[in-house]
Amino acid sequence: MDFDVIVLGAGIVGVSSALHLQDRGRSVALVDRRGPGEETSFGNAGLIESSSIVPYGFPRRLRTLLRYARNQSTDLYWDYRALPAFAAWLGRFWWESSPERLAVAARDMLPLIRASVTEHDALIARAGLGRLAHDGGWIEAFRTQSELGHQTKVAESAVREHGLRVQPLDAPALRAKEPGIGAGFCGALHWQDPKSISDPGALTKGYARLFEQAGGTLLNGDATTLRVRGAAWAVQTNSGEISAKEVVVALGPWSDTVFAPLGYHIPLRAKRGYHMHYRPTGTVLSVPVVDTEEGYVIAPMRGGLRLTTGVEIARREAAPTAIQLERAERIAKPAFGLGERLDDAPWLGLRPCTPDMRPVIGRAPRHRGLWFAFGHNHHGLTLGPVSGRLLAEMMTGAAPFIDVRPFRPERFR
């Protein structure tokens, strides 16, 4: 066999998994159809989100559901043609989002979330990428006193239960802290524990360079050519067929193109989202800001101010639409001083999501040497390194640093 392990997918999860396996003495080939960090890992808001203990559940508040049903919001747009394919998934998502089950999901995710910054810090230091990482957290801004009051109570609970650091800001304090924010916000919560990344794609590429410098092999190839060859797994690459005893499927929203033909029925769906960069016309933000009630993020990036949209429910292969970005842009321009567009076209990305809001990390139950690491929902950047560590511990026989049962693939039988 050519390698000990083949990792399929060079996004943040796949690159991190390859690095951690390499650190534990495995010879690893990292295979992707594109370069590292050029898909979902490229286009997010750049948050290492150590304060999001509770996953993003299906909304239960009636006014929110009614707003979504009209399909006029900025934070959710749905294509009616996709609803049949999403119906069962959305039903399971709604069920898993009950207060009781959401609390269990938060408990299961807490160990991963808590270790996310520490694991990133270690790789950032090794790769010499400190220039991309910024302390200071992020700001959750509100337009109405009612929502500010509700979310302040939620934040107070997070402080009590998890020791998170959050600073309430009234309107004058918000403007004093971030002069680049315009009128329209009555206050905010400043979550201080997370870090932000000014170029998520460059971070992933930097981790991939670290992997190669330590002797790892990075190849272009087609993951869907994966086949069993005797006692090995084989896949076609631009350098020919390679083989290994073990293979990791870390293809994010395309993971089903490999696991489905092998007979696994894991409910993975892609929530679509867009971003665009803008030239700032005033004072540049120091940290990412979420316009919570309108459902978009403005993040200071090396390429300008990045607006990232909420969720679009559409078929994975459907053509991009301008609807959601244009809705958010109309609101964000006066609020954040967005100038001209800097990108030729909006970037479209896919968030790989499971209905129970937990990633799939672990051994495939019916195939020897087959491992899964995908489905990180809205927290792929946050959880990439810590997921890679957990997977590598499982694959090399080390004691996992947390309970792995909530993430096992067979939970969807």
UniProtKB/TrEMBL annotation:
| Gene3D superfamilies per the UniProt record, alphabetical | D-Amino Acid Oxidase, subunit A, domain 2, FAD/NAD(P)-binding domain
Looking at the UniProt record for this protein, which Gene Ontology cellular component terms does it annotate, in alphabetical order? cytoplasm
- In this chain the FAD dependent oxidoreductase domain maps to 4-394
Q: Which gene encodes it?
A: dadA1_2
Say which enzyme class the record assigns.
Answer: oxidoreductase
UniProt keywords, alphabetically = Oxidoreductase
A GO term for molecular function:
oxidoreductase activity
Query: Which EC number(s) does the record attach to this protein?
Result: 1.4.99.-
The protein's name in its UniProt record: D-amino acid dehydrogenase 1
**InterPro entries, A to Z:** FAD-dep_OxRdtase, FAD/NAD-bd_sf
